[in-house]
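Regression test attached.
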Amino acid sequence: MHILTKEEMKKIDKLTSEEYGIGSEILMEQAGISIYNEIIKNFKKNTHFLFVLGTGNNGGDGLAAARLLYNEGYKNLKIIIIGNNQSNLFKKQLEIIKKFKFDNFIKYDKNFENHVSTADCIIDGLIGIGLKDDLKEETQEVINIINSKKRGIVISIDIPSGIDANTGKISKNAIKADKTITFGSYKLGHIFFPGREYSGKIIVAPLSFPKDLFSLSHRELVTSDMVKKLLPKRPKFSQKYDFGNVLILAGSSEFPGASVLSAIGAQKIGAGLVKLITPSSLSSSVLEHEPGIIYKSLNKNKFSLRDIDIISKDIKKASVIVIGPGLGRSNETMQFVRNVVEYSTSPIVVDADALYAVDALALRKNIVLTPHVGEMQRIVRTDEIDIRQNYDYTEYFAKNKKATIVFKDVTTTITNGEKTYFNITGNTALSKGGSGDLLTGIIAGLIAQGLNVMEASIIASYLLGRTAEIVSAEKTEYYTTPLDIAKNLYKALLEVINA
Ligand SMILES: NC(=O)C1=CN([C@@H]2O[C@H](COP(=O)(O)OP(=O)(O)OC[C@H]3O[C@@H](n4cnc5c(N)ncnc54)[C@H](OP(=O)(O)O)[C@@H]3O)[C@@H](O)[C@H]2O)[C@@H](O)CC1
Ligand SMILES: [K+]
């Protein structure tokens, strides 16, 4: 599923009309029908509806839906229209509904609170993708009353009014919907917070948009279907060397645990061989969890420059290298990281402390950087932009670095600057030390099996998030740890494979 900006949606709308002859009037009628269909599934004819509409095409969709319901015998409908600048299609819909003898238009006055609190269902068609600048005062007031006085279900048309469709940000105020019915495809505002939360359950009504037109967007949502198609094959006639060789360079005496989770992640996702090299000796924990992992310690506190000589054979043999988790950030270790990155031509997953070392290096497409919010903020070195909602900055950064970025957040952005994927699986069970290390290992384990860094990052992000959801449904988001997730990775895998 492509994820669109409002400009892309408008372009698709225009092309659908100009190139395919399906005009906006038809699309609006279809939008109305899809809202109507969703409503009749859930509400009886005696339901009290309040349609709160603006005067643009979002409001026009609302008028079409109200008329269809009215025509079908839903008689407890009230419509309130906010604003004066009626769009042509809105005007037309208003004429049509009047021809059906609907006349229960109410005014915005002191009784509005009462209308809101007595409605079983409020339909929000105030503003869709046409939001401009800050919300006007009256609209803010209307939204405030709906959010605070509603008793029934709130359904937003296209996007909750007040949410910016390109960023998910709130303009002064926004409708808190239980459900949002959007058209054609998701907009970015549906998947970035707070828009994602304000949208409630999102339903995408396809309308008659030609599918090919959506490829003008280079951004997609990661879905279970996509993951299923990308999963590496495991041919019967094979042996461990066919599933790749992961080398993990991680850990220090100060942070011994991180490397263990990376190694387990790589092993559990199906890599043929996983070799973990740490500077200082770990407690026996890694082998207790997975005796199949090959483990070597260099018997020192941290990696330093010369260590590359000792491990050069391992580097040459590796089909993918993980570098970073728990390394620490001493100058010597940073130099070691730079040497490994420059020495090897294999795919490399650069995480955690190692992210700071590659700052000044020219990277390449088979290098994937996996920063979380704090790391991203520090490596892009700017406080001026809100990095969490600036996916285009992340894309720019990836393009500039010539690398692939997995920006780990509640909505994870996976991009090489040309194509971008957003993953929305996961929950707060992942907001814990160690989940990033686990992700890194899973990405590497998939690259080892022959996937490119983008494909591996898409699958790993989805499975990590989905497993967190499955495990925490049983154990809660408080209790679930990265190790629980690692051990249950098979549950999300099975769900995808059997879907
Ligand atoms: N694209 C498609 O393919 C299809 C699109 N369709 C539908 O069209 C919608 C887009 O319609 P659109 O372009 O007419 O804009 P829209 O969202 O109604 O916003 C304009 C209204 O908002 C108001 N308003 C704006 N800013 C404001 C503010 N700060 N504060 C207060 N008010 C503000 C503005 O008021 P004004 O400023 O003009 O007084 C005007 O009333 C789209 O979301 C979808 O629902 C479907 O029919 C199917 C096919
Ligand atoms: K809306």
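Expected vs. actual: identical. Residues 58, 124-128, 156-161 surround potassium ion (ligand 2) (CB under 6 Å).
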